[in-house]
């Protein structure tokens, strides 16, 4: 069993994981935002940087910690002009069956398949509508997963 401690700094947080009854941490990790340090079952997910940042999963099921690092999809500009990965705005939405098989909520209502982050990211669904533009014969919809879909307003199909 583990005790997870998060120390707050101005821009960064230090997450320490201790075995029960120990004063010495088994692991120490820097997180960018404490809300992105999320436990789920026996896996801890930690967002560790700005775009291009990384997302760590830590296996809490054994007597020693094992972490796995994943590169995040390309970032978005926030209102305060800090380049962020879309994963950071998703908050704590995180679920895992193991440290290498997980899903993570993102900023535009996307759900990314964590096991796909080693290659081309896979998303469940299209994400939120980010922008709309169009005219009498064509409309363009920018979606949260980074795609633009085109529609003919006179037809109900894309």
What does this structure look like?
- With 158 residues, this protein is mainly beta.
- It folds into two domains: 2-125, no CATH class; 126-158.
- The protein has no helices and 16 strands.
- It has strands spanning 2-8, 13-19, 27-31, 37-40, 43-47, 54-59, 66-71, 76-77, 83-84, 94-98, 101-105, 111-113, 122-124, 129-134, 139-143, 148-151.
- A four-stranded antiparallel sheet has the order 4-5-6-7, with no helix packed on it. It has a four-stranded antiparallel sheet with strand order 10-11-12-13, with no helix packed on it.
- Residues 75-90 have low confidence and may be disordered.
Strand proportion, as a percent range, falls in: over 45%
Query: How many H/I helical runs?
Result: 0
Low-confidence stretches: 75-90
Q: Could you give a short account of the major beta sheet?
A: 4 strands, antiparallel
Task: List the topology elements.
Layout (H helix, E strand, L loop, with lengths): L1 E7 L4 E7 L7 E5 L5 E4 L2 E5 L6 E6 L6 E6 L4 E2 L5 E2 L9 E5 L2 E5 L5 E3 L8 E3 L4 E6 L4 E5 L4 E4 L7
Antiparallel strand pairs: 1-2, 2-3, 4-5, 5-6, 6-7, 8-9, 10-11, 11-12, 12-13, 14-15, 15-16
